[in-house]
Amino acid sequence: MPGWVFIITRSLLFLLLLFITTKILGKKQISELSFFEYVAGITIGSIAGEVVTGLEGNLYHGSLAIIVFGLVTYLVNFLSIHSKKFSDFTEGKGTVIIRDGKILEDNLKKERYTIDEISTLLRQKNIFNVADVEFAVLEPRGNLSALLKKENRPLTPKDVGMKMANEKEPQTIIMDGAIMDEALRWAGKGRDWLYTELEKLGVTLDNVFLGQVNSYGDLTVDLYDDKIQVPQPQQRPLLLASLKKTQADLELFSLATECEKSKAMYKKNAALLQETINKLEPYLNG
Amino acid sequence: MTVASNVKQCLVTIKGIESQLSSLAFNSLDQEAKAAFHDTALTIGTIKKDLQYRILELERQEPQYKGS
To answer: What does the alpha-carbon distance between residue B68 and residue A188 come to, in Å, rounded to a whole number?
Structure first.
């Protein structure tokens, strides 16, 4: 058998073996979250490389080594799940670098990081002033997690006391002009509903590249033909506007009428409608 | 435009709002939003009843504008 056929068969075989190994070890192996996975990842890769190109090497010895490394990693993961002490030992613990806004020099020395390296890591998180940081941890894989002081954190609706409507994740129900039935089911809709909505927008299914539905049942589409303008869903903002208009109308009637009883009725309903508007505003905006 | 026709127009808008709220209550997935739409649809329903009653009154007082 010529050398190149040998290499091709070995490459394919080892590709399959590596694929299966990482599949079994899971996402953690790919992201190399812990020290152990990092070492196992490098070693498995280099063993595979060695065996694939080294014609004189033994195929079975290489495979065996990969399987052993995979098995040990799997076992370590398994034990780490069950024992916190074991996982601290194999995967390492985070080191606190900044606490209460002060750099802990001893911990820095223990991890052998210079202040320059720490500032680089902070800058990568868009933090240029160490004084802005309340708390920072050096994670086992060498990246830094930082918690800013409350006054330096981005403003959220909660900070300003705004009530926000909760939204579910949008579902992608059309891809490349094909209906995704499972996503459609998740959105609680059927094909009939989809055809009606497409008709409302005035587009055909074949022309839709991407179609998504949000948790209010609004359909937004992207078409193949970028020259066509698709109307944006406006039902909710329009509804808010007509609620406001009606509220103003009722106020007007209450001023215009001379009948005391009707005046009171209009006033009461205008107030009721105002209450309704306040309640619905978070859901109808945007 | 008479008073009666103004009130009627308002009633029609109210009816439209009620039906839109009901359909939103059906189409929304979030339970909280669903409940809010449903509750407000009921509130709008009571306002609608008051207006309908008022229109009957107006038509009795000014029969010449009946149906307009």
So the answer is: 42
Please tell me if residue A163 touches chain B, with a CB cutoff of 8 Å: no
- For residue A183, give every residue at least 6 positions away whose Cβ sits within 8 Å of its Cβ, in sequence order, or none: A171, A172, A173
d(CA B44, CA A105): 65
> CA of B24 to nearest chain A CA: how many angstroms apart?
7
As its CATH architecture, domain A95-152 has 2-Layer Sandwich (3.30)
For A9-34, the pLDDT digits (tens) are 888 988 898 888 888 888 877 776 77
Q: Do B7 and A253 touch (CB under 8 A)?
A: yes
What is A171-232's CATH number? 3.30.240.20
Q: Does B30 sit within 8 Å of A168, measured CB to CB?
A: yes
Question: A95-152 and A171-232: same fold?
Answer: yes
- The answer to whether the CB atoms of B50 and A269 lie below 8 A apart is yes
Task: Give the separation between CA A213 and CA A190, rounded to whole angstroms.
Answer: 12
Decide if A200 touches B, using CB distance below 8 A. no
pLDDT at B17: 93
Q: From the CA of B65, how many Å to the nearest CA of chain A?
A: 17
Q: What is the pLDDT of residue A128?
A: 92
What are the extents of the domains in chain A?
A: 3-89, 95-152, 171-232, 236-284
Residues sharing a CB contact under 8 Å with residue A18, sequence separation 6 or more, in sequence order:
A44, A45, A48, A66
The answer, for A286 touching chain B at a CB cutoff of 8 Å, is no
Per-residue pLDDT, A226: 87
Residues of chain B with C-beta less than 8 angstroms from the C-beta of A187:
29
